Amino acid sequence: AKFLGNAVPPVFAVIARAVRVDRKLLGYQLAAYFDKPTARVQLVVSSIAENDNMKICADGALLSKHKVTVSLECQQYAVIAKAEAGVLGEFPAARLEVEWERLPIIVTTYAKKLAKHIPMAALKAGFRLERVANADKEIELTAALPAQKIPEMTLSRMAIPLPIAIPINPDGTLSIHIDEDILTWIHKHIKEE
């Protein structure tokens, strides 16, 4: 099902609304859905104003203990990201693939500027670089822990803040436990913030 709300009740919903002087409603609704059998989570943000059909949908699924997919859609853009953990040769590895149908102009403008600097930065950091023609509107990144070889240059920094935790175990599996109640997980992570 494209929309989980047709199959399961929401785990929670938050509505922020205001009434204007002319009695028109303004505001937004956030609803979260969790389908335990398919390990799928969906967040939907929509406007409750009568002439505003703004809607953003984030949909995530744990496809296996090695693979996660997330999609983000709204009227202006649509992005699908797939993350995979495993072993490349004998070394733990991770792969990130991002595909898009539509992106805001500001994102594509800055991405093109940044992309010009990636090859030189990768070479200076000791990475092997291969140019492969990706499909249109797709980026794929594969990273593996290095072999016994000592790189010519090592760049490191401790405590780099990431927007999300990366739950990869040493054997390459993802350490996401779907059996955990979603509300408990949300409360735990809110308290940590």
TrEMBL record:
Keyword check for Magnesium: no
Keyword Glycoprotein: yes
Vitellinogen beta-sheet shell domain boundaries: 10-163
Keywords per UniProt: Glycoprotein
Cross-referenced SMART domains: DUF1944
Pfam families reported in the protein's UniProt record: Vit_b-sht_shell
Name recorded for this polypeptide: Vitellinogen beta-sheet shell domain-containing protein
Upper classification of the organism: Eukaryota, Metazoa, Chordata, Craniata, Vertebrata
